[in-house]
Design goal:
Strand content: 15-25%
Number of domains: 1
Order of helices and strands: HHEEEEEHE
Radius of gyration: 16 Å
Distance between the termini: 44 Å
CATH class: Alpha Beta
Largest sheet: 6 strands, mixed
Shape: globular
Length: 157
Amino acid sequence: MSHLIAPETPARQLAGFIAKFDPAIRKLARNARAVLRKRLPTAVELVYDNFQALAIGYCPTERMSDCILSLAIFPRGVSLSFFYGATLPDPHGILEGSGNQNRFVRLESAETLLRPDVEALIAAAIAQAVTPLPDTGGGYTVIKSISARQRPRSALV
């Protein structure tokens, strides 16, 4: 009798990627992801387990170019990145970064995502998206890439 091993689901793979981080970062990443899944229930989560960080993009399609925002998870912190943040209205001056396109907000806790100034940025990013998020349906997770080489995920290393 042969035993078949079921392929690992994207959700389980993502849980494994997050589990590599120190407990405080793990907790922040999981909680922030829960807030974003609730806020963007129809978004596709595109996961990139890269050399520098774990990135979870929230997109209307499986095309990276359609991404609206992402969680960037590093050994020492988690940020909410806006792919086209340089064009967002930021009356409170909370966006960090100086590139031509991307801007980010460092998350002290998942509750940072619920602050009115951060929610206004999220709403503006959704409103300016070229491809809108679907009105109905459920989002899902896609593992897009896993880097063979990665920096240590623990700040304690």
